[in-house]
Give the backbone structure.
Amino acid sequence: MREVFHQSLEDVQSRLVEIAELVTIAMDKASTAFEKSNVALAEEVIEADIIIDEKAVALDELAIEILARQQPVARDLRIVVSALRMSASLERMGDIAEHVAQLVRMRFPERVVPHGLKATFTKMGELDVAAARTLTELLRSEDLALAEEIREIDDQIDALHVSVFEKVLSDSWDHEASATVDATLASRFHERFGDHAVSVAKKVVYLATGDWATHDQEIDTTGVADD
Amino acid sequence: MREVFHQSLEDVQSRLVEIAELVTIAMDKASTAFEKSNVALAEEVIEADIIIDEKAVALDELAIEILARQQPVARDLRIVVSALRMSASLERMGDIAEHVAQLVRMRFPERVVPHGLKATFTKMGELDVAAARTLTELLRSEDLALAEEIREIDDQIDALHVSVFEKVLSDSWDHEASATVDATLASRFHERFGDHAVSVAKKVVYLATGDWATHDQEIDTTGVADD
């Protein structure tokens, strides 16, 4: 029974890694589409999101099946419940990549954001992709040092998010309202993507350290801060 | 054992209702604070959010304890897992009410949005409160007709959300960028609050109808649409 459970957990882990990889690819493509106003690439991201959604649903079903058949307790139970939460966060990260792609499609053939912010959003996109890639590796290796890396990447994303608002609210900002709307939404999407990566990373860390109360508190605090 | 489980579920249900009530109060106050630029009321909402967070954490812990001690299967298991997801959505609704209040505090003593959009946001706030109040009643009574009411309220919120962007992007919109940023964020917060209410309502319905696959698909679809 124990062995069966162990195999089930490996299945859960490999599925989380697989979804994280798809999310990384989605944000990588969405960022490129955003930078180059590549509507074909944006369409790819939008069409592919359903795959991430379906894999998240399948993982949830597996987790529920494990709870029903193997009735884990204590740490094992926490692992399975956390898998349900992680799949929800990863699915959300996929949605956000799709939203970035939708902005590109909505404005095409115009660029989503004016040149003044192009470098900022290119960097934000790179950082989001780095966060997702590092999260994938954290889920695969359970090397907890990677969680700290993700937090540092997210700090850089947050700083850029603040800089976008400073720019948009500065006297030098003379663009039309649509550019302001797009910059506001795009910046928020990029920021939240990073926040979700941190949220998943925290779950991995707290599963390893077993500090459940802090674990849940941290998630809620993240929730308050992020959304 | 069955009786114990039944009592546990009643405890879970009453906690969900309690959190939904607090969320309703939070959005009611946040909307009033937003309309009147009442920073004291905004502070109340911001300070009170931690209570919602703590009650959501306590509910999650109770759900995990039920899974560990009573090891429910089949529909009972779905109910407990759904409670975990509902508490996450309700906690998020509380966060969104807090974000609306934070906008009020950030702009005070200025109004968050210009007069041209005041009526729209007042209506959006009323609809969000109506959605939360109806959701509270749905959780209490399990009268599934209320789920359809919530969906109709959300449709009205979505229509107003679209109208905000039409207004902001129209030639008649001559406000500074900060007003555009605030209107964009405030409208998105109000829209997502309604989406979360629909998401929780769907869980109640699918728990009653037992159509799990659709249940999960629906949640993911909502996710794609909302966030």
